[in-house]
Amino acid sequence: MINRSTKLSTRRAAYNAGLILACRYSTNTPITHHSYIHGDFMSSYSKEEIAKHLKNLGPFPTYSNILNPQHFYQNQVLLEYSKKLPHPVSLRQLAGYGNTLTKQKIINSANFVRIEIPIRLAMRIRDLQTLPFGVVNNFHLAQIYESYYHSFNAFRKISKIETIEQNNRFCETVSKLLDDHVFNLSHLMMGALEVSIAQSLPQEDLDKFMSVMLRSRISRRVIAEEHLSLSENYNKNPYDKKPPHYLGEIFNQCNAVDHFNIVANMVKSSMAPSFPEIERLPDLEIDGDLDATFQFMVPHLHYMLHEILRNSFEATIKTHSKKTSKILPPVKVTIVNSDKHVLFRISDQGGGIAHDKLKKIWSFGKSPDQARKSLANFHTIPGLQLYSNLKVTAAGSSIVTTEATDALHASSLSEQTGRKKSTLEHFMARPYELFLGMGLPMCHVYVDYWNGELSMNSLEGYGCDTSLTLSKLGYHSTQTQLDRA
């Protein structure tokens, strides 16, 4: 068994050293005081120790059993999977199993997940393999590559599931994999920022790559978490009938006003240390259809509302806090409710955005200077997992450990599957001053994935109107957004 955390940490230091040297001798991106690498970053490592690991700056680090030429170019197993097509599936088809649960439905669902996930992972691994050298060799994207192959390897070796007991063990494995690989989202975002610093991929190509990777990640996790939810429900209440528009336990019936208030309080709490006069912070004024409800995944909903409201509150504070001692102008939300959609218009008096910058707010590509500042903030987010603890055998086979014993499989399933780790929660809980620059691009992908729309209008010198339209999933559940593999 190989524990890679220490080796990864040392390799990261070597990578930082290489990145500094590359920047220092580059006329396009000179090192500045905004660099995310602190000037005395080598203080905790001897130069001799760093030198031992410089060879790991190449495309195939010596510690890895996965990142090697044979794996990249002679991996017949991966090639065979990458030729397969994902199975188009709608949210209604996925959730239809939950209307009346039976043993055979649970087993069929388990085998669908078992077969489908490695196909989708193989497609993304091939995408990573075909990136330009300077991109695929990025430290963070290399972590994603190893993580994806770890999951791919684990899933493809799972035997056909034929009993509920086998499914319970399968659910424990899936749950552990979801939690073990939660760090991928932060690595993906940090990789995009480092690609921006090196300017090794055009902005349009970077946006396309990030969009595909994020959509695929959402699809895989929804498919997996939906099966965990169905299995948990079956073990608790087999053959229990659900309402006609039931979409699964991972989708909650959300009251729009309640969730806006919850998120606004989260934003204000994060701002309190930097803006102690909390009673002066902008109020959130909500009008329109105050009874609007819709089904949605709460972590996704909260993240989208959080990034939009955070921007509006921050802009309002910067524009008005030094001009008045009174309560700052409110952030206003108007709710428009229809049969198939719910629309939110979030308006602020934060001074607006210059029109030549408006299109850039949706892009993952940043200027090198902006990217360095954001990376510095990523490294200081409390509790954010940056290094994997994935384990492999000496031969490179993936190891997935679960804590439950055979006698406790069914009873522990609820605890194993009920609450998944979420990187989005860490992003939302970060201190106010840690600006990442990735919030709106991320929101745009999440909104688009769920067949919604997100746009912004700006009146420079006054403020912004952000329009967020979400589809009511019960009415759009026959669309096959889950085929975005």
TrEMBL record:
It is found in: Mitochondrion matrix. GO terms for molecular function: ATP binding; pyruvate dehydrogenase (acetyl-transferring) kinase activity. One of its GO terms (cellular component) is mitochondrial matrix. Keywords: ATP-binding, Kinase, Mitochondrion, Nucleotide-binding, Pyruvate, Transferase. Pfam families: BCDHK_Adom3. Gene3D superfamilies: Alpha-ketoacid/pyruvate dehydrogenase kinase, N-terminal domain, Histidine kinase-like ATPase, C-terminal domain. Its EC number is 2.7.11.-. It is an enzyme of class 2 (transferase). Its main location: mitochondrion. Residues 88-250 form the Branched-chain alpha-ketoacid dehydrogenase kinase/Pyruvate dehydrogenase kinase N-terminal domain. One of its GO terms (biological process) is regulation of glucose metabolic process. InterPro entries: AK/P_DHK_N_sf, BCDHK/PDK_N, BCKD/PDK, HATPase_C_sf. Belongs to the PDK/BCKDK protein kinase family. This is Protein-serine/threonine kinase. It comes from Spathaspora passalidarum (strain NRRL Y-27907 / 11-Y1). The lineage of its organism: Eukaryota, Fungi, Dikarya, Ascomycota, Saccharomycotina.
